[in-house]
Design goal:
This protein is of the alpha+beta class. The protein has one domain: Glutaredoxin. Helices cover about 35% and strands about 25% of the residues. The protein has a four-stranded mixed sheet with strand order 2-1-3-4, with helices on both faces.
């Protein structure tokens, strides 16, 4: 049985680099699928995996640790002074 690898992308150069890396290290037992986030069905699938940023890689139905970023956190952004005028 082949290892199922899904790469979620949005058409940016960083996404292209991620696809290239996955393809470079994949073996003959890897089945790679590249999914574009511009497709509504793909975006819904990404949400189910807990993907909040791309590029992201899912291996056999599990989001890879390197891609486990949480959603944008408003509190963290406020701590970075977003929403406050410069003094």
């Amino acid at each position: 049985m082949k290892r199922q690898i899904e790469v979620f992308v949005a058409g940016c150069p960083l996404c292209s680099d991620a696809v290239a890396v996955v393809k470079e290290i994949a073996c003959d037992d890897c089945d790679i699928t590249v999914l574009n986030m511009q497709d509504g069905d793909t975006a819904e699938q990404a949400r189910r995996y807990g993907i909040h940023a791309v590029p992201a890689v899912v291996v056999d139905g599990k989001l890879a640790d390197c891609c486990s970023r949480g959603p944008i956190n408003p509190e963290t952004l406020k701590a970075a002074d977003i929403g406050r005028p410069r003094s």
